[in-house]
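As a warm-up, study this chain.
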Amino acid sequence: MLCVRDLDAARNRFRSMGFTLTPPASHPFGTGNSLAQMGSSFIELLSVVDPGRIPPHANERFSFAAHNADFLARREGMSMLVISSEDARADEARWREAGLTTFEPVYFERGAKLPDGSEAKVAFTIAFVLNEEMPDAVFFCCQQHAPEAFWQPEYQRHPNGAMDFASVILAAEDPRRHAAFFDALFGAGSVQVNGDALDIQTALGKVEVIPAQASARPFSGFSAIDSSSAARFVGAGIRTADLGAADACLERGGIERLRKGERIIVSAAACCGIALEFVQA
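Now compare it with the structure written out below.
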């Protein structure tokens, strides 16, 4: 989930990188979005469109919209990682039993415009997980109640060949400190300690937690984290069917990038606060 201040400008930027985007949609709680759907995952461009409809946080309710509005007050960038769920309420119960901080799951509906111009209703149940040591990196699971209306093949075909996520990257002062959290979040045995970093294997791709100082390395493409942020999402890898096509799209779009072997890096500064790495599938 990529928080942006200007949804139209962000949509233009992602189209210039060769992504096909869904038409803009509005949530009933004051935010709006547009998606780059891939095979089994998506990039969600999210912005505040109606501040007056944003509900505040409550003791047992996590306000999705308030979190993202607070995030945008500080910066643009990736604010959340969405986890696919077959049963959001069961996942919330499992996380709560594992000792994680969870909240009452939320059900909501919104309209969606289909490729032929018709309208459909999509619905979701979402459940949030909060790690107080990582306030800028929130996780939630999402159960689709109308997947046949949500996933559209026409929206999943991209000129840059994007197929799916390969990885999501967080930077933290001490990644190993968060190993127990991720083990509970993704399941026992999913976390491997790799030196000072964590490699977490999920069903749809890898989550990497790297030391904060690594995000400041030259040509990393990341936006370095500062002392005010305990952890931050800094990058994502996308598998493409044709790295040459991805490079050509970026060239036509005037997007500054760095080609390093079989990968192309678009810096966080050029991509709404998150570095994108295109890798050959």
